[in-house]
Amino acid sequence: MQPPSVEILEKRLRGRGTDKEEDILARLKQAEKEIEYSKTPGVHDKIIVNDDLEKAWAEFKAFCVPDDA
To answer: 8-19: per-residue pLDDT in tens?
Structure first.
């Protein structure tokens, strides 16, 4: 799963109030790289954007669990 944007990820990380500033900056830098890499065709079978938990979970479940399971 990926966040809707780096800005929203930053807001989520800061909202937790559990990480040091340098840790937040390192995570954001890594997230930018990973989001950019995810745009490479054929790299991932599915990208689920975590903008709505229920929707993301349903999309994940539909992708990972076959209908006949």
So the answer is: 999 999 999 999
Burial class from Cβ neighbours inside 10 Å (0-12, 13-18, 19+) for residue 3 reads middle
**CA 3 to CA 47: how far, in whole Å?**
10
As a 3-state breakdown, the chain gives helix, strand, coil percent values, each rounded to 5, of 60, 5, 40
Residues facing 2 on adjacent strands: 49
Mean pLDDT of the 25-52 span: 95
Confidence (pTM): 0.75
Q: For residue 2, give the 3-state DSSP assignment.
A: strand
